[in-house]
Amino acid sequence: MSSTDVVMIVVIGVLAVFVAFMAMSETALTQMTKIRAYSLEEDGRRWAAQLRRLVEDPNRWLTGLLFLVMLSHLVIATLVGLLAEKHFGAWGVVVGTALESVVLFIGLEAAPKTYALMQSDTAALRAAPFVTLITRIPILRSIPGILIKITNIVLPGKGLQEGPYVTERELLAMADVAVQEDVIEREERVLIHSIIEFGDTVVREVMVPRPDMVCVSASNSVDEVLAHVLSERYSRLPVTGEDIDDIVGVVLVKDVLRAVVAGSGGQSIAEIMRPSMYVPESKRVAELMREMQSRQSHLAIVVDEYGGTAGLVTLEDVIEELVGEIVDEDDDEDALIEAGDDGSIIVAGRLPIDELFDVARIKAPESDYDTVAGMILHSAGRVPSRGQVVEEQGLLLEVLRMQGRRVHRVKVVRLDEKPIEVPEELLARAGSGKKDDEMPGSRSDGSARGDGSARGDGARATSER
Questions:
Q1: Max avg pLDDT among 72-86, 171-185, 223-237
Q2: Same domain membership, residue 69 and residue 50
Q3: Distance between alpha carbon 103 and the CA centroid of its chain, in Å?
Q4: Which of 58, 79, 409, 433 has the most beta carbons within 10 angstroms of its beta carbon?
Q5: 375 and 304 share a domain?
Q6: Is the pTM of this model over 0.70?
Q7: Domain containing 227 — which CATH number?
Q8: Same domain, yes or no, for 368 and 304?
């Protein structure tokens, strides 16, 4: 064996170790998430800062790393072929190529990558300084870039330059796994889900609907409105002109009290009301919250596509989408969801259908209605009566209680007879419950119930839309 052969064998051995390390580095870095890299850096792990920078911009190093791996494989294959042909002839090349393939696959690919998957943090931290060095070598940055440009000329394409690299579904799944592994509390998981879903929620889904609004008339006096406020216990009320579709302003309790203390109880409420804020029912609640904060407004009137009043929404209604129901000493509303004894659940008619199907673990259908009551009306084709049963999307729904023409309480069971399990955190958010003969309503700050404008005596008047 000549000195040249020895040098070739040494080169093959060095490149083999090099390829194994790069295979481990590629797998470790591509499997590393940004969140995990930030966590390692916060823990003060060595090389974590370099790792975080690599994970933030994989385009800086991935192409160069793959280029080096490909080049190393080509050199190893060439040298093995030369040595085999020199010493063993043509059959030696065949045998050498077969042995090389086995060694490359097991020793230089499968084993390093398996180690990187099993010891991801350690492998990624060890690879970080080496890969960072690669990114600083000009030739390793320029040559892959030139080759990619040539490739784009032959096969036009720009590749994936921007994310998202993590989808909403993956984030939700991560939160679920974190709860199972006791990394975060169940309440924190609920908050994470609420924050992610918050951006997709529109005003129509959180508003107090028109039939639940309580209003006062612009012709009412301050004293009449004060009596109305004391009976309804709201801190702000919409003021109507001709009817409920003519909301002309909003009156605040503190303004009413100031007028009474000043001896102006006989003046019209129109003199102390404030301008009202109007929003479409399709507006996203995230945008609405920012707008209400900037305008220092706690109540907005929701208008439909025809310009009529669809309902109202308060800042508390929006915040409740994030943190759940906010119950104070004046709240006496029914629970949105209650667990039954036979695997069923009792839900409010105003419960959003998305929440119902989430609890029932059934995929929510595409529909034009938002609530359980809307689904029952759609399925029945008419205003249901107490005891009526409908089937919809694998669920059996029985109307337990009606209030006028409104579906108030509904019993829900699965058609396949599987029990419906209600998460504890959802039961905790559901509400305090109350007597059956009491009127349901949203007792949020400034929200109102009962459709219609107020009569001259300040009492609630009901009108049909």
A1: 223-237
A2: yes
A3: 47
A4: 409
A5: no
A6: no
A7: 3.10.580.10
A8: no
